[in-house]
């Protein structure tokens, strides 16, 4: 009795399977539904359906190839849309930058990178001055340095900027003879300390937020030295801080454009290698 029941179960299973659609028919139906979704510009659901054909019906080469080609067509359209959007964003940011650059010049005279230098802080305009300088490159990397000039060394390794009980102080920066150095020239003693990688410790933001106040700077070392910041030095740091944000955004957009163009190149190369591409309605 049990053997007879098992035999009947197997028989009904075979009949049921044989009566159902074949894998090829299911693949064709799935692709036709994907085509309708594509025509309706429902690209997210189209991609999900195409992925299911590729992953779940690998033996149906014809429909797998069609699905892969349609996916590439969608991805190319998406990347072209991304490229158009990024190009427009780049134009917006570049236009935003133009008026901000009015007091800065581009220079490649002081190293391998092109730098942005405030007109009033150019080295030829600042010889013999004790001041705080803005350093900015075209990628938006920004930091400040303290520059002392006098008749003796003070061995300073940090600065404090203050007014009316409010202040900010940098981290201490060790002398290294390269970025942070001291030298004597014709009886004048020079000291340069660079506050990179966040070592300004909020001094940049403090100056930018209080550029219209009578800010004083204390050069702190074995000896102390004091200055009142010039208006154009405060403006240089304020403006460079704002410009850095825009330049970083421009760099990010340019990097994304480069990446999108690479993806488009790879997708188009693959499409060119395919002998037969599905004729899809746009």
Strand order of the largest sheet: 1-2-3-4-8-7
Structural class: alpha+beta
Strand residue content: 15-25%
| Series of secondary-structure elements, N-terminal to C-terminal | HHHHEEEEEEEEHEEH
Question: Biggest sheet, open or closed, and with what strands and sense?
Answer: 6 strands, antiparallel
Number of strands: 10
Shape: rod-shaped
Beginning-to-end CA distance, first to last residue: 62 Å
Give the secondary structure arrangement, pairings included.
Layout: H1 2-19, H2 23-39, H3 43-56, H4 61-100, E1 104-107, E2 115-118, E3 131-137, E4 142-150, E5 158-163, E6 166-169, E7 181-185, E8 188-195, H5 203-209, E9 216-220, E10 224-228, H6 231-273
Antiparallel strand pairs: 1-2, 2-3, 3-4, 4-8, 5-6, 5-9, 7-8, 9-10
Kindly list the characteristics that best describe this protein:
single chain, 282 residues, 2 domains, 20% strand, rod-shaped, disordered C terminus
Written overview of the protein:
With 282 residues, this protein is α+β, with helices and mostly antiparallel strands. The protein has two domains: 21-100; 104-255, no CATH class. It contains six helices and ten strands. It has helices spanning 2-19, 23-39, 43-56, 61-100, 203-209, 231-273, and strands at 104-107, 115-118, 131-137, 142-150, 158-163, 166-169, 181-185, 188-195, 216-220, 224-228. The protein has a six-stranded antiparallel beta sheet. A four-stranded antiparallel beta sheet has the order 6-5-9-10, covered by helices on one side. A hairpin with a 2-residue loop joins strand 7 (181-185) and strand 8. Helix 2 (23-39) packs parallel to helix 4, helix 3 (43-56) crosses helix 4 (61-100) and helix 5 crosses helix 6 (231-273).
